[in-house]
Specification:
Shape of chain A: globular
Largest sheet of chain A: 5 strands, parallel
Radius of gyration of chain A: 17 Å
Number of domains of chain A: 1
Strand order of the largest sheet of chain A: 2-1-3-4-5
Structural class of chain A: alpha/beta
CATH architecture of chain A: 3-Layer(aba) Sandwich
CATH topology of chain A: Rossmann fold
Oligomer: homooctamer
Strand content of chain A: 15-25%
Distance between the termini of chain A: 50 Å
Helix content of chain A: 40-55%
């Protein structure tokens, strides 16, 4: 079954994952969640990333705030795709965004929007679908539902405002 | 063979791809390059994205500058992973970065650094390696070579500066 | 009668329209409001924009936050004037502003201030006044009333503070 | 015939208009160009804006850099649509952009991108097309040509890069 | 007696003046306060600025938010010193700051910090002291009191924290 | 005769003063120029500022780049008006602007635009005109000439572009 | 015993020190706290900095907000290491950060993150450990405890989320 | 003898060190220079940092651009003071500054200005002077020379400009 690893730099960032957990459930993904700091627990990060193959995990989401090094540090440890999730902890999240997306040449991090854990999980699923083609249907179904949700809101608004 | 699609919003952005082309060659990837504008040639974008399956292309790199909509527009057309490459055309590239990375919930774009076509291609290869495991060795070899290049520079600098 | 189309990317942005609705009422405009996403419901956006002629609608206001593509996507579908309303959802609205105002050459979006739905509607009315000259008097009357409101406040402040 | 007024705060900004002049010629517009400063020649600005009706001019483009007040000052003098063109003279043009787009409620300025004189003229033409419907065909033709230009570049790039 | 004119673009900005009013009282200044908009009530602004000489007012404080044109518009009407007070209404006040401080060459505005009405009044008093030398003693006395206030806080903190 | 003191943090900033020197000459001002660093030569700054009274100098222009402390340090040493001139040496001059304009309450600095030495001198002259009323005529004459210069450019542009 | 001096520009910034005080206690440091303004009480700052040698204090932490000159002013008075602590009082703390970190060549300030008093104290202790080697063990112990705290959180999160 | 370690993320950043090398020579410091990437050569970074004690090196300068992780990664490996040198490679160096200075609580980096290698070395020497008190005289002498250099420039400027 398709499984993703999620690493956060701090457990205070857990609420940011709420939107992501909903997508995980909707798409029927498995996940492992770890709280590990790039700087304070580097060895555990290394150990965990090295264990991914044996666990059948092919994509990593890493979220951090401020000078957010965790996604880049993980990306340097693996050639599996690493998704960087900038978390707003200061400076409106711009410091985290720059610290993640502006990685030097050679070590890419697939960065999503500030606090956008839903998009991080969706991107993970899109990537996993290369190996788990059954996810494609789920992803397309989610798109259909999102579209339906917009259209439903549109109908309500039209009923209220348009004569 | 592993193949990526690259779409640019303008042919004036072609030089930005130079670093990416080198990685493509090094990793032995195939690619298709298109110049298509999200706004001026939307139909052609749709048509091309719909053709990806038949061409065996599983990942898209889309680069654009200013109010860079191309990556997001493509991401809305497919559940394949789309890599957004912000191109510096004004405001130091911050406008392109925000227009790409801050996508609304539901339509993720895997954003890399400003003008970082090398990282865009490497990320594409990492993603493709889920389906084309033979890429893993190439990616790891590239890491080894990058490391060697750094160590070679380090040796030269040490020889010159450290007694 | 002069009529404007208003499209929002999300119904959570509806409160931003409050100031705009007041101007609509004051100026005696008609409007249609749609909740449509550039990415999730592109077909409906196309269909709606193509229907504008038959409805006698000559100007569109499009509001969105974050990587706000809706105004630009609409502008690419029509040569009618499209007014872009950046909505503050993150980064103080700067991401939305850049994603709207920095459109590439060829597809202009008439951008107003962040969350400034009143100015969006006033601009729509000014544009419509080219075809509906009866709006000119209403617009001028609104300017007179704004001036009166400032002067009234000025009188109160003068009475309180100036001896 | 459809005619636009263009006001610049300084003649040193004239080169910024080059892209705009090309669109003017392509669309067959007439224009009047004035160099007038909001602060140094306020009376002349007032006088000129008051003359627009008699000249059959229904839309104004105003460009300025730095603390760019000219577009807002003009917008306060008329209920005709005023297009603001932020010009890059310092701070990458962000100061001009903010000084133009963030107008207080009641006095809208239709702002285009930094140095985007082409989009300023296209927007002017779109607005004028409400009164001069013959412009619609020209605007649509320009879109067709832009599309053709992109496709031509795309063909060249495909011929060179795609096997 | 030394007198200053204070103009605000909107009465909603009155609370920003609180710190300034305290300095006015402390220094024994007179003032006139007006709520006048650069755009909505330009004639009244002109009329008021032209009346300053007859009222013996030699310095003007002008405060405004967003695209804050009021200080620059006033500065264009007089060669008396005009102090610009950027007010935080959006974008953390950066839009107001840029719209005030980045005035084009020829029309200076003496800009103080965002929402810093105390410094605006102190600067006004420093300027007026050239003509009203009796203010110098008050200004120096205020500096002495500020110093005393800091030292008093320092003593309390030392008593509490330092053994 | 009206005299201003100009202090720069570094002689490498001298070219920034060119526009200011022209205004000095035009208005018939006297000046003293010093290169003094707030940090390296604090004593000399103190000594010089204390000498201003004896020299009949009533206003100071202080220019510096980066973390520009010189204007604030001087403002803390005197209750004479101090004009802060932010100089672009890094970060487009935003660091210097913030370091000068955002002074804490109690010590105002009259800040002008980045590199705007002309406006610094004009503001100095406006302030000095409270004590040297003969400057008023010169300042008004300069405004007249600036207006004439704009109108002359306007005539040339009209002759070239307007039929 | 190892002792640090802490200077704040205002007692309203005291709460920012809370995290720092905890580190001080944990590491068994001594400290002196002063509230002194670079501008209002320059003499007292000079006097205090000159007293450091006699008190056996070898490192200074200086915190301030807005145009934060205190750290730089202190750094100019001593060749002891000065740690700058930017405090968020406006503009998200960016003005304080730039005013502290962008010091001109010759007078360095060791800048830590916005409001990061914990890191300021840790850096002070790291510096002091050159002279007080007994601090090394405490610093290493703190790292061990931080690591343990992360791992404890990690265990809890794993127990809750990972099957 | 007092010795510092300097690590750069890339040899293309070597020219940034020029100003720092001059200070090293002036102060009579020893140094070791390494080109090591936090991400590509993490093991070598660890190995080198672990060797510092045996080499008698007590302070590290680490410079990097873009998403500059090197200083923070090193700071996590040692409780010796680590000086972060943000290097301008994109976004005017703001990305590097944020990635270095905004470190999470527990792992401080002593950050200096963008490209300010001179201040990095001076800060290193100030720190080393706690253990090598003979450096104090050199540092004070450098201050004296800097002061002399300013005064010499001041004399030249006075001779030229002041009558």
């Amino acid at each position: 079954m398709a499984k993703i690893a999620i690493l956060l730099g701090s457990d205070s960032d857990l609420p940011v994952l709420d939107k992501g957990f909903k997508i995980i459930e909707k798409l029927g993904l498995e996940f492992e969640l770890r709280i590990l700091s790039a700087h304070r627990t580097h060895d555990e990060v290394v150990e965990y990333i090295e264990s991914l193959d044996s666990k059948g995990i092919d994509v990593v989401i890493a979220g951090a705030g401020k000078a957010a090094h965790l996604p880049g540090v993980i990306a340097a440890l693996t050639v599996k795709p690493v998704i960087g999730l900038p978390i707003r902890a200061s400076l409106d999240g711009v410091d985290a965004l720059y610290s993640i997306v502006q990685m030097p040449g050679g070590i890419p991090v697939a960065t999503v929007g500030i606090n956008a854990s839903d998009n991080a999980v969706l991107l993970a699923a899109e990537i996993l679908s290369l190996k788990h083609p059954e996810l494609v249907a789920n992803l397309k179904q989610h798109r259909v539902e999102m579209k339906e949700a917009v259209l439903e809101k549109d109908r309500k608004v039209q009923a209220k405002y348009n004569k």
